[in-house]
Amino acid sequence: MKILLVRPPRIKQAITLSDFMFSEPLGLEMIYGVLKENHNVEIFDMMIETISLKDKIKLCSPEAVGITSLCIDVNKVLDLCIEVKNEDDQIHTIVGGTQAYLNSEAFFHDAVDHIFEYTNEENLIELYERLAQGSMRSKIDGIRSKEFGYASTRKKGRYAYMLPDRSSTEKYRREYSYFGYRPAAIMEFGVGCEKACDFCLRWRIEGYEEGLIDPELTKRDMAQIKEPTIMMMDNDFFASEEKVKAFLSLIRGMGIKKNFIVYGSVKGIILYKNAIKEFVECGLKAVLVGYETFKDTELADYRKKSTIEDNYKAAGILRELGVDVWASFMAHPDWDANDFSALRRYIKSLKPQITSISPLTPFPNLPMYKKYEDRLLYNAKDYEKWSFGQVMIRPSGMSLRRYYWELLVTNLYVNIFVNKKTEMIDRYGLMNIIRIFTGSLKAFNKYISLMIKN
Ligand code: B12
Ligand code: SF4
Q1: DSSP string, 174-196
Q2: Is the same domain home to 211 and 127?
């Protein structure tokens, strides 16, 4: 069977960071890795491609088109499925990805034939076999099919981490980057997150329980990565000392010398300083840290498992170890002007290399959604708005316009005065810094237009 796997294009109307955090479509590479044995598969990355899906279909005549999805992609994915059906209604349309897992109902639409709520080797092979044979017969675990009214078998599951085939995106790979590191690959070493912060989707996607991905799979995957930089997408790379040590022994054993970027918790940085020091000697270059706020009461509300003082300690440790910090904060909807200036002072004292501040987003299905339901500025179905970059909760301490102004000023302040530009130019090169800056400008422009509108 000829199968086309598609990543939708960037959503222009959404506020995203994907100009400078832009990774390969790892999920599609995994699907490719499994299906290539028995089918003729191709990946079409519309975040890079310039031709339309319609033209691509004319060129390669697929029998099935599979599309991956994130929260803001819903309408685009549906449009693409309609485009496929308009071209040839015999082509099977299949949707998977994070949004299909978190909210499969969003894809209950006449143009969508099958939705993968969760994906593993068994259900993947089974569906495409049945499609090739021309008969579905019955429902399949993890898949909601139009012909069965999108009903599920009720068996629960999560996405399986399978061996990706990195060669499937060969022609795109030089474009994939993470901040100043380009090209950069992305992979995962361990899943889950026992910190279970209240606002976070990530542990809900992968589960509370932490565990390592099969080390043999990791080795085979690591061996195929040619890029000099790997972004490890684990929720908390510093979940335990054993985990960091297991990774170090794996890369040392394989003689891997690369730059590594990880997401790390404040707690882990404090507890496993010595293991992190060894990791720095083996290539750790930057840590993405969620400091979130400058108020202990909010950290407790978020169930964050760290304090303002812990944030200082973690920042000090990473500075001492010479690792860059890419810090993220969440603007609380009840902040007033004094809170924003306190945040600016706090960021200045933590001295991160890069900072991003996004408004608190009570994603539908999170317990927080109920709490803020009556203050929501948009509907759950305004999919493009749920980008984690747009203000979603009506502020209580100031007007919405002023709130956008404070976000804009704070982002400008930290980017111009706090983040160390000269150090960054040395590290990432002028061209990369210009690219990051242009990406930020797009977000700034959107903030300005939202400020004017409100
Ligand atoms: C890497 C990553 C990215 C990459 C690209 C990911 C991609 N799929 O293209 C980049 C950096 C571009 C990115 C951008 C964004 N991201 Co992001 N990202 C991640 C991250 C760190 C890992 C995702 C991943 O690769 N998982 C591993 C793969 C293997 O899983 P998977 O894609 O789900 O694939 C599996 C199955 O779903 C299935 N599958 C997937 N697609 C398909 C298709 C078919 C046909 C089939 C059959 C199966 C199938 O097969 C795979 C194997 O089991 C997660 C956090 C996390 N840890 O989950 C956030 C995350 C997914 N991102 C998130 C967000 C919000 C965004 C942005 C909106 C952020 C922003 N404001 O800029 C943008 C949107 C970009 C856009 N559309 O313009 C949210 C998602 C919320 C949601 N409900 O969707 C997450 C959970 C982070 C968070 N904030 O909590 N992201
Ligand atoms: S530590 Fe990070 S990944 Fe884990 S639950 Fe908290 S915010 Fe989510």
Answers
A1: GG-EETTB-SEEEE-SEE--TT-
A2: no
Span 212-257, pLDDT tens digits: 999 999 999 999 999 999 999 999 999 999 999 999 999 999 999 9
Structure tokens at 304: 């964050």
Beta bridge partners of 262: 232, 287
Query: Rounded to whole angstroms, how far apart are CA atoms 380 and 373?
Result: 10
**Residue list, ligand 1 pocket, CB within 6 Å:** 7, 10-11, 16-18, 21-23, 25-28, 30-31, 66-68, 70-73, 94, 96-99, 101-102, 116, 119, 159-160, 162, 186, 201-202, 205, 233, 235, 387-389
3-state helix, strand, coil in the chain (%, to 5): 45, 15, 35
Tell me the pLDDT tens digit for each residue of 275-320: 999 999 999 999 999 999 999 999 999 999 999 999 999 999 999 9
Domain of 118, CATH number, reads 3.40.50.280
Q: How far apart are CA 197 and CA 200, in angstroms?
A: 6
Question: Is residue 135 pLDDT above 60, yes or no?
Answer: yes
CA 327 to CA 349: how far, in whole Å? 12
Which domain does 297 fall in, by range? 168-453
Q: Choose the residue to mutate in 200, 204, 209, 311 for probing ligand 2, maximizing ligand atoms within 8 Å of C-beta.
A: 200
Query: What CATH number is associated with residue 363?
Result: 3.80.30.20
Residue 156 lies in a domain: no
